[in-house]
Amino acid sequence: MNDMEQTKKTKNVFCNKNYTLVFLGALVSNIAALFYSFAVSFYILKLTDNNAFMQGLYLAVGGVVFCISSLFGGVISDRYDKAKIMYICDYIKGFIIIGFTLLFMFVFESNSYKVISLFIITIVLNAIAGVFSPASNAIIPEIVEEDSFQQAQSYFSILNSFQSIIGIFLAGILYTLIPIDVIFMIVGICYIGSAISEMFIKCNRSNEEKEKLSLKNVFIDIKSGFSYFVEVKPIFIIVMGVLVFNFFFSPLYSNFIPYFIVTDVAGTNYIFSEIMEPELWESVFSIGVGVGSLIMGIILSAMKQKEKYNKMIKIPFILISFLIGVFALCYLLFAKEIVSINFLLIFMLIAFVLVGSLSVMINVPSTTIMMILIDKDKFGKVSSVVNIGTQGLIPLSTFLAGIFITYFSSVGLLFICFAGVSIVSIILLFSKAIKDI
Fold first, then answer.
1. Tens digit of pLDDT for each residue in 189-221?
2. CA angle 368, 372, 373 (to 5 degrees)
3. Is 302 exposed, middle or buried (0-12, 13-18, 19+ CB in 10 A)?
4. Residue 402 in contact with residue 255, Cβ under 8 Å?
5. pTM of the full predicted structure?
6. Residue 87 contacts by C-beta under 8 Å, 6 or more apart in sequence?
7. What is the 3-state secondary structure (H, E, C) of 282-302?
8. Residue 412 half-sphere exposure, CB side, CA atoms within 13 Å?
């Protein structure tokens, strides 16, 4: 009996066919999303003559739609086959992107039409993503044993890291070498490929019959999901902390980096300028995040699942805040022409490697705790609440950041971000609600 239990404990999660299919589907689907988001960040600026306000508005619209859609997505994922939800969503995303790409290639010539189309696409894609995300999160507890939760999440962290390293690098190369329409077509094909993989996943669904889905039942389920979420105090505190933390942190990458590359890097004699277009520096920074998170993901995948994670979650928040403060100071020195562009670029790369590693130290333990504490039949609804809880203020923050950069300064934005994340980190550090998790 002891030998059997030991075998079960040491069995690799990839021996589970369903997990492998989910993993492969996520690999292809996430690469598609990564290619698309990378290309659109620069494409919006190109179509609008480097208008940071329009870029911020684009990011905000997509984020708002995702948050609203996630509420309904959580209800749907708890009622229906999660695998079916996933592959239907990926098929729809694939065909929508291919359809609009054909319009870009053969119908639309005006930049205004293209910008409007990109806004329509982000509304539709984020609405679908809001349904897809809770299902993809909630499917893991249904196909993986509890003592493998940390390993399962660690491998997904490694996957995200791999995509950041390879996917972003390829996205940067593709953006500089081939037309944007071709990139969009590749994205659509990737989504369809992901859907094909997900069609073979089999979930261990409950046989309990549920009431027929109606608008009334949807709102009842949403309310019950919020109530249950608030009752699980440690998860509630962590998510609220991440909500405010992301509000101040997300503009750093979503708004500042593309704008910094276009206005500060382009046209200067930066390191490797002979062989690298300026846009490739975003790829380099993302690769840095990927390398850091890959290393930490490998470490956590090999570690035994812990009983308590409170210190592992709290300390990375403080360290990330410190890095943002140092980065803001370095950029101020660059703006004052005290340090060179090459010094700043190298420091930013090192900082992003560390941020990638520290982020995994927050994400993997937090998700593992959720899988342990949350009932499986409520995981979809709670997951959608968590999506809103962690991402809900990002649309507002990216919108405000776009306005701030346009009418004030990027230096000021960095110091505001530093002050915000520091306050949140200190509050979480001394929080009694999460000391026992």
1. 989 988 988 888 887 655 444 556 666 677 777
2. 115
3. exposed
4. yes
5. 0.67
6. 25, 194, 195, 196, 198, 199
7. HHHHHHHHHHHHHHHHHHHHH
8. 10
